[in-house]
Automatic annotation (TrEMBL):
Database matches in PROSITE patterns: AA_TRANSFER_CLASS_2
Protein keywords: Amino-acid biosynthesis, Aminotransferase, Histidine biosynthesis, Pyridoxal phosphate, Transferase
Cofactor: pyridoxal 5'-phosphate
HAMAP family, per the entry: HisC_aminotrans_2
Assembly, per entry: Homodimer.
Lineage: Bacteria, Pseudomonadati, Pseudomonadota, Betaproteobacteria, Nitrosomonadales
Family recorded in the similarity comment: Belongs to the class-II pyridoxal-phosphate-dependent aminotransferase family. Histidinol-phosphate aminotransferase subfamily.
Any GO MF annotation of the entry: histidinol-phosphate transaminase activity
Record domain Aminotransferase class I/classII large: where: 34-350
Pathway: Amino-acid biosynthesis; L-histidine biosynthesis; L-histidine from 5-phospho-alpha-D-ribose 1-diphosphate: step 7/9
Protein's recorded name: Histidinol-phosphate aminotransferase
Entry EC no(s): 2.6.1.9
GO BP: any one term: L-histidine biosynthetic process
Gene for this chain: hisC
Length: 364
C-alpha cells in the first residue's frame, strides 16, 4: 500500500483484552453458562442496584446527545472527593484519561517513564504520540521509585505510576509516594493510576487526592470499571490542577462519555453499601485463592487489588488447558512475566472451579 502510517504507529502492538466468554464458547464448542471468566478484573457482583435503576431510566433518553460537560456527574464526583468541579476530567474509561494526558503534554521530543511489569497502556499512549518510553526495571515486581527518579531528564514529560499495579498487584506506601512527589521536578507530570483503590483496606487507602493542593504536577486517574462494575459502559475520570484539566479537555473528544454511563456513575457513587460488599467479597476470594495456591505448592505475588498473579512455570500451556475446560484467566507474558497467570477474583463458586481445574491440570 502506498499510504503509510508513521513508523511509531506501525510499531504499536494493539492492546489485547481478556478473551470474551462468547469467543471461547465458539472456539471450544462450550456452553456460555459453563464458562468462568477470571481474566479482566471485573466485579463478579455486577453493578449496584442503584446504577441498574439509573441505567433503565437513562435509556429512555438515548436519542439525545449526552451532556458533554457531564454536569451531574461532575457535581457528584466533586462532592464525593472534595475537589473543585474544574479539577475533573471525564473519559471513556480511565484509559481515555491516560491518553488525554499524553495527547495534551507529549511531543516527539518527550520522554515518558514507567516501570517494568506496569500497565500496558502506558507504553501504548507514549508510542502513539511518537515519544520515547523509558522503562525502569521493577523491584520485587513493583515500582522502584528511586530508580524512576534517577531516570528523569530535561526531556521527561510524564511519569506513569499504577498503585496498586496491574498485573502484579503490588502497592507503594503512602510515605514513599509522597516523598517521591516532593522530589519530582515541577516540569514533569506524575500520573497516578488508582484504578483499584476501592479494593484497598482503610489503612492502605490513597491520600493522593489531598495532595493535589500541594502538587500542581499530579494527575490522579480513577475508574468505574472495577469495584463499581461499569466496565461495559466505559467511564473513568481524572483529578488534577485546573490548568492541567483545561489542557486535557482541549484534546478530549466531544461527548466522549455517553449519557447512560454518566447516569450509572452518579448512582454508583451514591451506593457505598455495594462497594463495601464488593470489597468484602474480594477479600474472601483472595484468601480462597491464596489457600488454594499454597495447597498446590505454587508461589504468587501478594496482591492489593482484585486479582492475583500466580507462578505456574509453563503458563502458556496451562492457560490453554484452562481454556479447554471453560476457565478464562490472563497470561501475562507480554508483561515480561511468562511463567505467571493473572487471575481475577470471582465469586466463591468461580474461584472454586478455577482451583479444581488447575489442580487437575497440574496433577495430570
Amino acid at each position: 500500500m502506498s499510504i503509510q502510517a508513521p513508523q511509531h504507529i506501525q510499531k504499536i502492538a494493539p492492546y489485547q483484552g481478556g478473551k470474551p466468554i462468547t469467543e471461547l464458547a465458539r472456539e471450544m464448542n462450550l456452553n456460555v453458562e459453563d464458562i468462568v471468566k477470571l481474566a479482566s478484573n471485573e466485579n463478579p457482583l455486577g453493578i449496584s442496584p442503584k446504577a441498574d435503576y439509573a441505567i433503565q431510566e437513562a435509556i429512555l433518553g438515548i436519542a439525545r446527545y449526552p451532556d458533554g460537560n457531564s454536569f451531574a456527574l461532575r457535581e457528584a464526583v466533586s462532592h464525593k472527593f472534595s475537589v473543585a468541579p474544574e479539577q475533573i476530567v471525564f473519559g471513556n474509561g480511565s484509559n481515555d484519561i491516560l491518553e488525554l494526558v499524553a495527547r495534551a503534554y507529549l511531543t516527539s521530543d518527550s520522554e515518558v517513564i514507567y516501570s517494568q511489569h506496569a500497565f500496558a497502556v502506558y507504553p501504548l499512549v507514549t508510542q502513539a504520540m511518537g515519544a520515547k518510553g523509558v522503562v525502569v526495571p521493577a523491584k520485587d515486581f513493583g515500582h522502584d521509585l528511586s530508580a524512576m527518579l534517577a531516570a528523569v531528564t530535561d526531556k521527561t514529560s510524564l511519569i506513569f505510576i499504577a498503585n496498586p499495579n496491574n498485573p502484579t498487584g503490588t502497592l507503594l506506601t503512602k510515605d514513599a509516594l509522597y516523598a517521591f512527589l516532593q522530589q519530582v521536578p515541577q516540569h514533569v507530570l506524575v500520573v497516578l493510576d488508582e484504578a483499584y483503590d476501592e479494593y484497598l483496606s482503610a489503612e492502605h487507602k490513597s491520600e493522593a487526592i489531598a495532595w493535589l493542593k500541594e502538587f500542581e504536577n499530579l494527575v490522579i486517574s480513577r475508574t468505574f470499571s472495577k469495584a463499581y462494575g461499569l466496565a461495559g459502559l466505559r467511564i473513568g475520570f481524572g483529578l488534577c490542577h485546573t490548568q492541567v484539566a483545561d489542557m486535557m479537555n482541549r484534546v478530549r473528544q466531544p461527548f466522549n462519555v455517553n449519557s447512560v454511563a454518566q447516569a450509572a456513575a452518579v448512582a454508583s457513587l451514591a451506593d457505598d453499601d455495594f462497594v463495601e460488599r464488593s470489597y468484602a467479597l474480594n477479600q474472601a476470594g483472595m484468601a480462597q485463592l491464596k489457600q488454594g495456591f499454597e495447597q498446590l505448592g505454587l508461589t504468587y505475588i501478594p496482591s492489593f487489588a482484585n486479582f492475583i498473579s500466580v507462578k505456574v512455570w509453563d503458563a502458556a500451556a496451562i492457560n490453554q488447558k484452562l481454556l479447554q475446560n471453560g476457565v478464562i484467566v490472563r497470561p501475562v507474558a507480554n508483561y515480561e512475566m511468562p511463567e505467571y497467570l493473572r487471575v481475577s477474583i470471582g465469586l466463591f463458586s468461580e474461584n472454586a472451579k478455577f482451583l479444581e481445574v488447575l489442580t487437575k491440570i497440574l496433577k495430570s
